[in-house]
Amino acid sequence: MMKAAKTKRRNAATANSAKGRSATSTVGATSSQTGRVANPPNRAARAAQRRAAIIAAGLDEFTARGFAATRLDDVAKRAGVAKGTIYLHFKDKEALFQELVRTALVPLIGNLMTVPAAGGSVREILERFAETFVRDVAGTKRGDIVRLIMAEGTRFPSLADFYFREVVSRGLAGMRKLIEYGIERGEIRNARLADFPQIVIAPAMVAVMWQGLFGRHAPLDAVAMLKVHLDLIFGERRAS
Amino acid sequence: MMKAAKTKRRNAATANSAKGRSATSTVGATSSQTGRVANPPNRAARAAQRRAAIIAAGLDEFTARGFAATRLDDVAKRAGVAKGTIYLHFKDKEALFQELVRTALVPLIGNLMTVPAAGGSVREILERFAETFVRDVAGTKRGDIVRLIMAEGTRFPSLADFYFREVVSRGLAGMRKLIEYGIERGEIRNARLADFPQIVIAPAMVAVMWQGLFGRHAPLDAVAMLKVHLDLIFGERRAS
Amino acid sequence: MMKAAKTKRRNAATANSAKGRSATSTVGATSSQTGRVANPPNRAARAAQRRAAIIAAGLDEFTARGFAATRLDDVAKRAGVAKGTIYLHFKDKEALFQELVRTALVPLIGNLMTVPAAGGSVREILERFAETFVRDVAGTKRGDIVRLIMAEGTRFPSLADFYFREVVSRGLAGMRKLIEYGIERGEIRNARLADFPQIVIAPAMVAVMWQGLFGRHAPLDAVAMLKVHLDLIFGERRAS
Amino acid sequence: MMKAAKTKRRNAATANSAKGRSATSTVGATSSQTGRVANPPNRAARAAQRRAAIIAAGLDEFTARGFAATRLDDVAKRAGVAKGTIYLHFKDKEALFQELVRTALVPLIGNLMTVPAAGGSVREILERFAETFVRDVAGTKRGDIVRLIMAEGTRFPSLADFYFREVVSRGLAGMRKLIEYGIERGEIRNARLADFPQIVIAPAMVAVMWQGLFGRHAPLDAVAMLKVHLDLIFGERRAS
DNA sequence: GATGAATGAGAATTCATTCAT
DNA sequence: AATGAATGAATTCTCATTCAT
């Protein structure tokens, strides 16, 4: 009746790959049709490019279908490489999956850490954070990764651990610092908030889930929501 | 050439079934009509029992492995029935999955609607709600279902729709009413909260996710967290 | 793409059965609702009726799908009995199949033997035979049986043997006698025809096949064809 | 939890393949391009060879058991390939079946069209045709195909259509032309025979059926039979 | 290094047959 | 005797993984 997870794509996959180079490198790719390698951007670079293409393709497929339902055949097609090539770079499906998630998580971590670096009041910092988050994570591929981890975390404890260690605990630590700073500055009244930085993050997480699951049918003004939430934390603002 | 007489009937089937049943069904060995063993109700009851056992087993397996990675063979084993029996009750794997989720969701819905029914201040109601939620959902099989939907929602849009329709929108509507009542009563100052009942729910959702993913390594005092969150919403309480 | 042999009938089956009684006995069946058997048309008769219903249903199914693709479930449904009942009358699927074909063959045999009994010239006899054959066999259920034997004969040698013994050799023997009579009477000139009675039968067999396979798209005037064939055997007729 | 390293490769695959291939493919070990063993053609050739082996094996199995009762496992074994390989060449069992029949039919068609090409009287042509037919079709694999179509035609209408279009209607058209030529030449007296070329073919068809079903127990001198039939059509010959 | 044809373990689904009611 | 729920062997089809080219 429903036939989910069966989408025989089979095409449109090679679109963004065409040998998997276009996305990342518009580098020195002048020409290379008939001959073998008229312009070889040295072996290592080529390999790295392929690897990146596989990771990118895998990310799309895994977020769309989950680990078990993803076919390496499709990943290969999307990456513009042969199936066997995947095994040149990754031990097996699981290794690809784990590495891919780890790789995708790094920018998320970076992002998390840099935003607050900018100055201003804590409220201002969090407001900027909220905007950045909604723009760059919720409803984007980045958000899909978060949802992917929620989905597969139980089956891949090491992944959940990694996520916890690298993203969650760091993010919460940073958030805690910020909260403490806000308390210090008198911006935040409730001192116990520092014990549960999750509270500050929670609506953002809900936004991610919402966009992924219900966004299509019931769009959510995530920025507005996060601002109301900040009002709760900092006390209502006079001027909007 | 012609295969005949193959079925090796063996009555060890009901042996391991108790394991599969006990977890969910509190039906237990209460009565017995026609006689024979301790618990052999009539045909229809037996069928219903088996069906329930399959659903219970399926729930365990699906929440543990996700849709694609669950083997009906395992579900059957856990339910103490033969593989074919599943197909007597459900058209295919997907039908089982969907029905199972829907079935599991109903008590959740009921729960959600009854708790606030009790009287008292809005703060008291929400506090009671938080306690109930933490006890009955977060970290329990119920929570697993929620996480299951988060995980498979994208692949089973009709499920996500169902969940949205039956649980999310109803729950949010109830929550909104409660918030409006709180605003009316002067308990809640920020009127815009009524626009985003998700904010009130958010930490609870995060608690569910947390317990499922990180609970083992980094336990979270969910009740305490939810109380701090209520403090943000209602203003700090003087006496705890 | 094609999906043959999958027709999930599932209904319309119980029509001609309604407990399998109506067909044969309108006997003393006054009433028999609540009690066990207020008016038992004796056990044996009931059993025979059921058996007949199963055979009739089996014939339909087997001719439509072939042996392997026929489901006993469908046979039971069409016969208006439970699946298990089939096993009360037949050892297994194969036994049902074989007996059913044998049963169905008997009238064919009878038919074959009686027609020529009538008097007249050999030409007249064969013309009558042709008409009867086209009307009662080609394009009817009887013809389906013949085609069924052609189809499954290789897999059921005992069936092919039975068919050969009971139908083919008898039929050919009868036909040979007729030919010899025709030669004697001077109606048939080619004496060697008696060595190959198959020749006389051949166009009739082709008609059976044709109707079953191509009849829908390319109808064949079988009677006309058979008459032309008789013209070859007897020499052209003056008056048509 | 994760299954890894399961494929127990064993190179005994090609061992029993010879058996499966030799029967049908007269391709044999003729040449060898790149070297290595006795018969290792290039990729494409290997693929074509495998495909041919599958078709040959399928033909044997399908004619022996019919569509439904044939196991792809057996086809694979007979072809000397792995089960999965079949799916590299054919979408599913049905696709294999249909293509196989079509493929097998082509030579039949060719045959049909070339034989009459030779000159001589119509009687001579048909006599030659009869001999060729008996030798190359009746009682051979070719004949099995015809019987296979008779058997499965009802369940695969598109096959029956194909057979009708490509073999039957062409064959009949050719036969009709021949008959008309015979009438023109005065060899055939009954002009209406041109309306039913089936009559000329009929004994040949019966011969095919006969050899397949009863040939073992009751051999039939098909050539003699067809000659007697020709005597009917052309009038008896003086000298045999 | 790349490729993709080939492999075969594995999982879903079907259906003849049995047997408790 | 009749029923039809339950069983599990058998079969199709998929896809991760390997390896000859």
Automatic annotation (TrEMBL), chains A, B, C, D:
<feature type="DNA-binding region" description="H-T-H motif">
    <location>
        <begin position="71"/>
        <end position="90"/>
    </location>
</feature>
<dbReference type="InterPro" id="IPR009057">
    <property type="entry name" value="Homeodomain-like_sf"/>
</dbReference>
<feature type="compositionally biased region" description="Basic residues">
    <location>
        <begin position="1"/>
        <end position="11"/>
    </location>
</feature>
<dbReference type="GO" id="GO:0003700">
    <property type="term" value="F:DNA-binding transcription factor activity"/>
</dbReference>
<keyword id="KW-0238">DNA-binding</keyword>
<dbReference type="InterPro" id="IPR011075">
    <property type="entry name" value="TetR_C"/>
</dbReference>
<protein>
    <submittedName>
        <fullName>TetR family transcriptional regulator</fullName>
    </submittedName>
</protein>
<feature type="domain" description="HTH tetR-type">
    <location>
        <begin position="48"/>
        <end position="108"/>
    </location>
</feature>
<keyword id="KW-0805">Transcription regulation</keyword>
<dbReference type="GO" id="GO:0000976">
    <property type="term" value="F:transcription cis-regulatory region binding"/>
</dbReference>
<feature type="region of interest" description="Disordered">
    <location>
        <begin position="1"/>
        <end position="42"/>
    </location>
</feature>
<dbReference type="InterPro" id="IPR050109">
    <property type="entry name" value="HTH-type_TetR-like_transc_reg"/>
</dbReference>
<keyword id="KW-0804">Transcription</keyword>
<feature type="compositionally biased region" description="Polar residues">
    <location>
        <begin position="17"/>
        <end position="36"/>
    </location>
</feature>
<dbReference type="Pfam" id="PF16859">
    <property type="entry name" value="TetR_C_11"/>
</dbReference>
<dbReference type="InterPro" id="IPR001647">
    <property type="entry name" value="HTH_TetR"/>
</dbReference>
<dbReference type="Pfam" id="PF00440">
    <property type="entry name" value="TetR_N"/>
</dbReference>
<dbReference type="InterPro" id="IPR036271">
    <property type="entry name" value="Tet_transcr_reg_TetR-rel_C_sf"/>
</dbReference>
